[in-house]
Amino acid sequence: MKTPIPAESASALIDAKINELGDWRGKTLAKVRSIIHRADPEIVEEWKWRGTPVFSHAGIVCTGETYKNAVKLTFAKGAALPDPKGLFNSSLDGNVRRAIDIHEGDKIDETALKNLIHAAIALNLASKNKTKPSRTIASRFD
Q1: d(CA 74, CA 65)
Q2: Domain range for residue 120?
Q3: Which of 36, 40, 49, 58 has its CA 20 to 30 A from that of 122?
Q4: Do residues 74 and 91 touch, judged by C-beta distance below 8 A?
Q5: What is the CATH number of the domain that holds 100?
Q6: How many domains does the chain have?
Q7: Structure pTM?
């Protein structure tokens, strides 16, 4: 089993990633990171899959990936989230995940993004708090 990276180290790695990018993608990742933290001050930053910033609260809320032409916020359970403002514009065919691709010059609807974050956290908490029904296995030989 891999040892998880401590939150302080993960945050430092995300800082380094933002600085390393040094262009609109770094600024955009920093901005969405700030929005995520304003939406939920208890969010935990993680560093997974060899270099992906992950934001979690009772499970993964979203990841913050950077590509040549986009910053992608992938919501782990996005297909189950309400998106009345239509922020999701990528990975729309999947059964579980949904993503927001942010391109250079795109404006970010902070209120709508915060609402998605709140919904993702609520879904994670609801999933964690579900009590699994106990199964009784009856013997055919009683």
Answers
A1: 8
A2: 7-129
A3: 49
A4: yes
A5: 3.90.1150.200
A6: 1
A7: 0.85
